[in-house]
Specification:
By secondary structure, the chain is an alpha+beta fold. It has three domains: 7-122; 126-246 and 347-421, 3-Layer(aba) Sandwich (Rossmann fold), CATH 3.40.50; 253-340, Alpha-Beta Plaits (2-Layer Sandwich). Helices cover 26% and strands 28% of the residues. The protein contains eleven helices and 22 strands.
Length: 428
């Protein structure tokens, strides 16, 4: 691990710079690889996100060094550098540490992931969740769900029916006015779903796929679709939690076999959790500690991804992600990506089901989807930590109708939601 890089050399090398605004945070990304900045602009086409860009001339290094050293000290700047004279590997320099990039051609997406995670973890003005959000007649609709349950596909189907787009994958609720902010990040769509919407958009760049977990996704900028409408910030009115199984049904039993063919103990799908996590470098001592965590059934290397990626099988009721984040911090390893997976496969040929859930159940789902991380200033600003956030979430969902939706045929799911937001409860 490299703990120090000469800041003067870094500032001199970073000739290309963009200044961005994400919610209440303004930050600058400096690099000698302009494709890094192009990637950021591609992911966030909103003109309010992209503030300015400039290229420094080589004869103005002294002013640049002073400017960048000052901005770095207050946490405003990030550097993405690919220069063997400084270091043999490309790297990202954030206010927390230096992250080496193990795969050079993935530097833009890797830098985006590292910097975005750093920014999200520092946000105090908003509560940020892994969820999609739309609006219908100025009513906010939030869709929670783990990766692979079809949040983005359902979002695009609702947009095709006239719903307005607020955000995909990362929903930000303003803590002052409790409105969902409009965050125009590109919508992540699985390649297998592109055919479903060929009549809705004329051309999709299928070479723009994400690199995590096999590159099975493309990024779709809704600003390029004339029919898509961008929503204004609005209050949350409906919370929909995608789930594999209705709350009142008997848990299904399923047997799982790991990569080495070892049979695991049969557990109900409601008691078992699966996810992948990618790290920037393999640290055997850390992985051994992950395997020893209470609640971990199995943690093994998943070989299909460019970064070291591990598939974890554990028991529900154990806060495994916070523990993994702590271990990453302990061993100075970057948590590049987390993707939930492995639950019972969704049968998209069946009829979907929509049922009301309690406010307490909805709050638990929101806590599970919280993107700020357990080191977030939102949780550290009060001695009560999580309890304080639970009270705040209780205030946010006052007057919110909360439902569980069991996925099924796409058009039927959209029908249920359309009827719901228009006041037809006869389907419940």
């Amino acid at each position: 691990m490299v703990d120090f890089v000469d800041p003067t050399s870094v500032a001199t090398t970073a000739r290309f710079k963009h200044t961005f605004r994400f919610l209440d945070t303004i930050f600058t990304v400096g690099t000698n690889r302009p494709e890094v900045l192009i990637y950021f602009q591609k992911m966030y086409p909103d003109p309010d996100f992209y503030l300015r860009a400039f290229e420094e001339k080589n004869d103005d290094h002294q002013g640049l060094e002073a400017q960048e050293e000052s901005s770095y000290q207050d946490g405003a700047s990030y550097y993405v550098i690919d220069e063997p004279k400084i270091w043999e590997k490309p790297f990202i320099w954030t206010k927390e540490r230096i992250y080496p990039c193990p795969v050079t051609h993935l530097l833009p997406s890797y830098a985006y992931s590292i910097i975005t995670n750093s920014i999200v973890a520092s946000i105090q003005s908003h509560l940020i969740f892994h969820a999609a959000a739309l609006s219908w007649q100025d009513q906010g609709i939030m869709i929670l769900g783990v990766s692979g349950q079809g949040k983005s596909t359902l979002t695009l189907e609702l947009i095709r029916r006239g719903f307005h787009f607020l955000t995909d994958d990362m929903t930000c609720i303003n803590r002052q006015n409790r409105c969902i902010s409009s965050v125009h990040r590109a919508l992540s769509l699985r390649r297998s779903a592109v055919e479903l919407f060929k009549d809705f958009f004329h051309q999709v760049d299928t070479n723009s796929g994400g690199e995590n977990l096999g590159g099975r996704k493309i990024w779709l900028n809704l600003v390029d679709i004339p029919e898509a409408k961008i929503a204004k910030p609005c209050r949350l009115r409906f919370l929909l939690c995608l789930s594999y199984q209705p709350a009142g049904s008997s848990p299904r039993q399923e047997s799982f076999v790991d990569e080495e063919g070892s049979r695991l103990e049969d557990l109900s799908t409601e008691d078992k959790k699966f996810f992948y996590f990618s790290i920037d470098q393999f640290e055997e001592r850390m992985i051994n500690e992950v395997r020893a965590l209470p609640g971990v059934e199995k943690c093994s290397l998943y070989a299909e991804t460019p970064f070291p990626t591990f598939r974890l099988i554990g028991r529900r009721g154990h806060f495994l992600l916070p523990a993994i984040e702590e271990l990453c911090q302990k061993y100075r390893v970057a948590l590049v990506n987390i993707a939930r997976d492995g639950q019972a496969a969704v049968d998209y040929s069946q009829n979907p089901c929509l049922e009301r859930i309690s406010k307490s159940t909805a709050i638990r789902e929101l806590v599970r989807s919280f993107r700020g991380g357990w080191r977030s200033p939102v949780l550290r600003e009060a001695n009560s930590g999580v309890a304080s956030m639970l009270l705040e979430l209780g205030q946010i969902i006052k007057g919110v109708d909360c439902y569980r939706i069991i996925p099924g045929r796409l058009e039927k799911m959209a029908d249920l939601i359309f009827d719901l937001v228009n006041g037809d409860r006869g389907c419940l």
